[in-house]
């Protein structure tokens, strides 16, 4: 019998998540029930996750051997059969509570990788954005002090303020987006290993994901561009209607109708594409194919996906707020002692950034784990992925 892989060792061949189903355009064979011409039995139907005739299944007694456990001899009382739990979740379709609990268990199972990667990425991006943000804050404080002293407002000062805001906000926002995008990509792979009860080291994890970083960034940019494109098209349409109709009640009503419609379309599309990241990495999909894969996986489960991800976002927001609040109070001390100069501003921002790094280190892995487990749950429900995972865990 083969030995289980050690920590940081790549999984053996055939023990991964399989290839994408044949309809996705991949020339390789599909996973489990995704073979062409076959249809997976539904959850709870006869044959779901059961071995073929004459072969003992994983966790089931072979012919002539008694079964073990509280059920005594014979078959288990559960009509679905016992399902193993080699890692953070049982290998069957999971509930909301199991997804949330599994996300925390993923962090506890491999804190060195999950928390360590988050801390490193957040420290680097936060320090890079610290100085531009401090310079803009000082410039804005000087402008506000002149305005409060009844000095005339100079147009050049306003222009400089806007330019400084752009110079400070855009790099910081871009770095934060890059950090969260890369973190989600890295941590999804760590969660997939934790599902099978395996721990992967930081070095091995980076070796597996670094070749896909550009694809991950491209996926994020493409989704962001698509959503912004919808907003831009509907905004231009609304403005064109208002200009054509003039300042009338009809034009105003049209504007008020199109804005919520645009928001709804973007919200709907964003959650239909919310699982494109796990599909990109765990199935080695191309960017556009990963978006199509996510769109089809979420079909018929949009409200469930929306509810779980929205609840996870609330948990992350509240948790980060609780962690960051004391640091925001302490941030007033350096500014007060330094007299409002650049040093005081840098000190205040640094204290706030420490809280941001700590909160992100804790809750970014949780958010990534929820997305990964939701993707796995949908594949178990629709494609019988749990059968392949049981085979992989047995191997």
Summarize the helices and strands and which ones pair or pack.
Elements: H1 96-109, H2 111-148, H3 155-195, H4 202-209, H5 213-245, H6 249-272, H7 276-282, H8 287-298, H9 302-330, H10 332-337, H11 342-383, H12 385-394
Write up what this structure looks like.
This protein has about 400 residues and is mainly alpha-helical. The protein has one domain (about 100-395). Helix content is about 65%, strand content about 0%. It has twelve helices and no strands. The chain has helices at about 95-110, 110-150, 155-195, 200-210, 215-245, 250-270, 275-280, 285-300, 300-330, 330-335, 340-385, 385-395. Helix 2 (about 110-150) packs across helix 11 (about 340-385). It is globular and about 70 Å long. The N and C termini lie close together (about 10 Å). The model is unreliable at about 1-15 and about 20-80 (pLDDT under 50).
Name its key features.
mainly alpha
Tally of DSSP β-strands: 0
Largest sheet: none
Q: Report mean pLDDT, rounded to a whole number.
A: 75
Structural class: mainly alpha
Q: In angstroms, what is the radius of gyration?
A: 26 Å
The helix content, as a percent range, equals 55-70%
- What is the count of distinct domains? 1
Short description, anyone?
By secondary structure, the chain is mainly alpha-helical. Helices cover 67% and strands 0% of the residues.
């Amino acid at each position: 019998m083969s030995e289980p892989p050690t920590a940081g060792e790549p999984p053996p061949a055939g023990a991964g998540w399989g290839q994408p189903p044949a309809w996705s355009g991949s020339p390789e064979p599909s996973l489990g029930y995704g073979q062409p011409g076959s249809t997976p039995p539904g959850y709870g139907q006869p044959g779901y996750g059961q071995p073929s005739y004459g072969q003992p299944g994983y966790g089931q007694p072979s012919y002539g051997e008694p079964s073990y456990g509280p059920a005594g001899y014979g078959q288990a009382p559960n009509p679905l059969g016992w399902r193993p739990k080699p890692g953070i979740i049982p290998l069957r379709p999971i509930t909301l509570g199991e997804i949330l609990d599994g996300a925390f268990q993923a962090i506890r199972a491999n804190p060195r990788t999950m928390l360590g990667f988050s801390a490193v990425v957040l420290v680097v991006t936060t320090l890079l954005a610290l100085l531009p943000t401090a310079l803009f804050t000082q410039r804005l404080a000087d402008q506000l002090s002149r305005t409060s002293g009844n000095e005339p407002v100079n147009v050049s000062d306003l222009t400089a303020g806007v330019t400084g805001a752009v110079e400070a906000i855009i790099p910081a926002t871009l770095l934060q987006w890059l950090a969260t995008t890369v973190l989600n990509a890295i941590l999804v792979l760590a969660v997939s290993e934790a599902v099978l009860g395996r721990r992967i080291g930081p070095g091995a994890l980076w070796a597996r994901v670094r070749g896909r970083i550009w694809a991950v960034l491209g996926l994020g940019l493409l989704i962001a561009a698509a959503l912004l494109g919808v907003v831009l098209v509907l905004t231009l349409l609304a403005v064109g209607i208002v200009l054509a109709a003039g300042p009338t009640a009809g034009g105003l009503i049209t504007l008020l109708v199109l804005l919520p419609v645009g928001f709804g379309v973007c919200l709907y599309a964003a959650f239909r594409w919310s699982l494109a990241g796990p599909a990109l990495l765990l199935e080695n999909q191309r960017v556009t194919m990963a978006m199509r894969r996510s769109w089809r996986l979420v079909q018929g489960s949009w409200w469930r996906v929306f509810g779980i991800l929205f609840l996870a976002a609330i948990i992350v927001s509240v948790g980060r707020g609780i962690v960051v609040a004391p640091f925001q109070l302490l941030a007033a001390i350096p500014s007060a002692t330094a007299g409002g100069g650049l040093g005081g501003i840098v000190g205040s921002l640094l204290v706030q950034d420490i809280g941001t790094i700590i909160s992100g280190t804790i809750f970014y892995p949780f958010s990534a784990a929820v997305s990964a487990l939701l993707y796995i749950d949908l594949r178990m429900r629709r494609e019988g992925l749990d059968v392949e995972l049981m085979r992989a865990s047995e191997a």
